[in-house]
Each structure stands twice: as structure tokens, then as C-alpha cells.
């Protein structure tokens, strides 16, 4: 076999492996609890910044989209008993989370949605947080939820960092089996 | 052995190994086998860490700032681990081995370019020297120093390039002679 033929055969083999991997990946994604729709769009979600730059329509109780809330507003949401989602990993959640918060790891949201979604109402305010100002998992989770019809999403960008800094109570341990 | 040597020099026409290995065909084939096993182990392990976690992998790819959130990013996050997995299996079994080596060599080349791009970006933005730049490259092995990752990828590039350019192979599943 000549070099030319060997290279051509290698390219054909590579194409076959890519095709095989693509099919296997798409099939697995289709059946996996963490599978995603590659066509989904996360932009185009209305975002209101309540924490730093009020944009007019900033009342967390009266907005359609994602509203960034300040620490005080987030505390009000927690104290009022609205559902709060912790978008960090289960390890981080277990090491300490906002009291009453439900674990909804953004990167494994498909799995967590089974438990979390029945406890959410599309009309209700939902508080969401992650580690702190440098993480965007809470906002990403909010964008996913908005596309699913939940329209009053309050993202606390200060996250656990600000909550702990304020010396507020933490709840520890694994997620509860909610009834 | 004699026939294999004949194949090495006259039949393949490929450049042969990227470097000369003393000791003849037997030692060369053992070294090739070692390269295949290392490549397979690295890529199958990496694939297992990323397969089934498309959001996490997409987020890690997104950190490079090359692809925005969208179809291409998500598609890569869904299929790339599986392509790595099949390439690893191909190298282990010897089936479609040259094609797998071609893919892995190309991937490593791309990884080197994008990790360098991100590293230079961090150096410029934060004024950190190269030796201190530490991030998760999305490779499946967790956060590491950029310089270390670049060296690893260069080694893997040499391994995969060597397998691709090898004029002949042994240790192929279902075949007694290479």
C-alpha cells in the first residue's frame, strides 16, 4: 500500500470514528438525565439589575425575566419562604447552604429538576444563588428556568460568599427528601 | 521481522517514526504499543470524566472565549468526549488505529493552540507570569498549571504523531502479525 493510500485510508478511518462518536454522543445525550438541547437559546432573556444599576423595572416582585437582587432583597426572599435554589455542586451544598435552599446543581440540572420543579410555580418568585460574584451558574440556571416558563427569577450574585460574610446561619448536610 | 523491515523502508512511503529508535523492529513496535496504551489511557479517562456532563464541559470550553454559547459549543460538548473514547479504544485494539492517531494528533494540536491563546490572554489581562497561570483547561483532569498542560499536550502530540506516521503496526486485535 502506498503512502497516499495509507493517508487516504487514515482520513476515512478518522471520519468513521468522528461519525461514530457523534452518533454515540447524540444518542447518549438524548437519553441522559443531564442531556441538553444543543439548539436551545439562552440569550434574549430580559435581565434587570437590582443590585448595582437599577434599570427602572427593578421590583423583584414585579418583573418578567431575571432580576439581580441585592443582599437585603435576597434575605427578604428567603425570610418570606419563597423557593430558593442553590446552583452549586452537591459537595458545596452539603458543606453549607442558605437555610431552606434546594440543591439544583446547574451542571446536573436535568437530574435535579425531577425533584425541584414540582416544588416551583411559574408565577412565584424564585431566588437563585451560587458561590459568589465570580460564578455565573445561578444566572445560567435562571436562563434555563426562564425558557421553561418560570418568569420571576431573582439571582443573588453575592452568593454564598456574601451570605457567609454577613455571618448568617447556614444549613449543612445533604439535600432533604422533600415531600 | 524481515518482511516488517521491508515494509518499513520500501512499502509505506510514509516518513516513518518521528525519531530513530535503536534496537530494531521489535523494540520499535513495543515502544509504539506503549505510546498507544498511554494515549488510550489518557483519552479514555478524559472522556469518562466529560461524557454525560455536557453543560459542565460546555462551560469549560466557553472559558476560552473562542466559542459563544450556541449550537456549535453544545454540539462539541456532547460529542467530543465520545470521539475521544472511540479513539482510545481504537488505539487499544488496533482497529482504525491510524485514523484515531490522526484525530488525536489534530486534537492535541488544537489544544496546544487554544491553551496557549488563553494563557497569553490571562498573562496580558492579569499580568501574571506563565509559571503561575493555573486553570481548568476542560481536559478532564482538573485544574493544573498551563505550562505543565502544554508540555503534556506536546508529548501526546509526539506520541500520536509517531503512531500515525508508523509504517507498520503489531499488536492488533484479531491479527497475529503487524
Number of helices of chain A: 6
Biggest sheet layout of chain A: 6 strands, parallel
Tally of distinct domains of chain A: 2
Helical content class of chain A: 25-40%
- In round numbers, the mean pLDDT of chain B is 87
Q: Choose one word for the global shape of chain A.
A: elongated
The number of E-state strands of chain B comes to: 2
Helix and strand string of chain A, N-terminal first? Answer: HEEHEHEHEHEH
Q: What is the gyration radius of chain A calculated from CA atoms?
A: 21 Å
Provide the spatial order of strands within the biggest beta sheet of chain B. Answer: 1-2
CATH architecture call of the largest domain in chain A: 3-Layer(aba) Sandwich
Q: Describe the largest sheet of chain B.
A: 2 strands, antiparallel
Measured by DSSP, the beta-strand proportion of chain B falls in under 5%
Q: What's the domain count of chain B?
A: 1
Assembly of the depicted chains: heterodimer
User: How far is it from the N-terminal to the C-terminal residue of chain A, by CA?
Assistant: 68 Å
Considering the protein shown, what is the CATH homologous superfamily of the largest domain in chain A? Rhodanese-like domain
Shape of chain B: globular
Provide the helix percentage of chain B: 55-70%
What does this structure look like?
The complex is a heterodimer of chains A (179) and B (178). Chain A is an alpha/beta fold. Chain A folds into 2 domains: 1-32; 47-165, 3-Layer(aba) Sandwich (Oxidized Rhodanese, domain 1), CATH 3.40.250.10. Chain A has helices spanning 3-31, 71-79, 90-94, 109-116, 137-147, 159-165; strands at 47-49, 65-69, 84-86, 102-103, 126-129, 152-156. Chain A has a 6-stranded parallel β-sheet. In chain A, strand 3, helix 3 and strand 4 form a beta-alpha-beta unit. Chain A is elongated and about 75 Å long. The model of chain A is unreliable at 52-58 (pLDDT under 50). With 178 residues, chain B is mainly α. Chain B has one domain (25-165). Chain B is built from 6 helices and 2 strands; from the N terminus they run H-H-H-H-H-E-E-H. Chain B has helices spanning 2-11, 24-50, 54-62, 71-93, 97-126, 146-165; strands at 134-135, 144-145. A two-stranded antiparallel sheet of chain B has the order 1-2. In chain B, helix 2 (24-50) crosses helix 6 and helix 4 (71-93) crosses helix 5. The A-B interface holds A 1-4, 6-7, 9-18, 20-22, 24-26, 28-29, 32, 34-43, 106-109, 140 and B 11-14, 51-56, 58-59, 69-71, 74-75, 77-87, 90, 96-103, 164.
